[in-house]
User: Fold this.
Amino acid sequence: MSISSRTARTVRIVGAASAGAALALGVAGNALACDIRDFSAVASCDSNGKGVITVTDTDPTGQTATVSVYLESNGADAKQVGVQTVKGAKKGATVSFPEDWAPKAQYRIRVSVKGSKLDEDVKPNLVTPDKGCKAPESTPPASTSPKPSATPSSSDTPSATPSESDSTAPATTTQGNSPSPAAGTSNLAETGASSNTPMIAGIAGALVVIGGGAVYFGMRRRGASKNG
Assistant:
């Protein structure tokens, strides 16, 4: 049984349409699938000088991926740094893993998407920079205790030699540097006596004697006259 040219043409049209549909579905499927090339990782330092590993997901389909980070040593996992999920975004969505990484260390980044064939490592492994993070130097707080003055103030400095005005004033003398009079002379001066006192006393004594003699002779003469 031979196939007419009309039938053959119809078969060819249907085949071409099927192939186009399959290709379109394949392209759409690939467009909706999350790709490992949408992921990247970098090691850096935060504002506090601490190490951090950041993974970026630029999957435009917005699928949720599980990201696991491992420290590598001699081609094997030395430890698991952490596991986080990230929802992709065309502009890029990030997750950060605090890690005190050492210079030139290697980390393996594993990405898996549930319900997808994606379960791969980001290639190549992450290699940290040549220099590690350094915490910023903190300024010590200012001391609250007052610092001693370099040069003591005049009020705190004792005077080496007392001035003449501060010393005890010398006793005042009446006649320059001449010695002060004796105690007896001083008392005589206070009572009005002077150096002529002995002579005046002698004269007074002589007058007393003379007066007594005159009285004696007067009384004797009066007695003689009575007897005669």
Notes: Confidence is low (pLDDT under 50) at residues 21-31, 181-186.
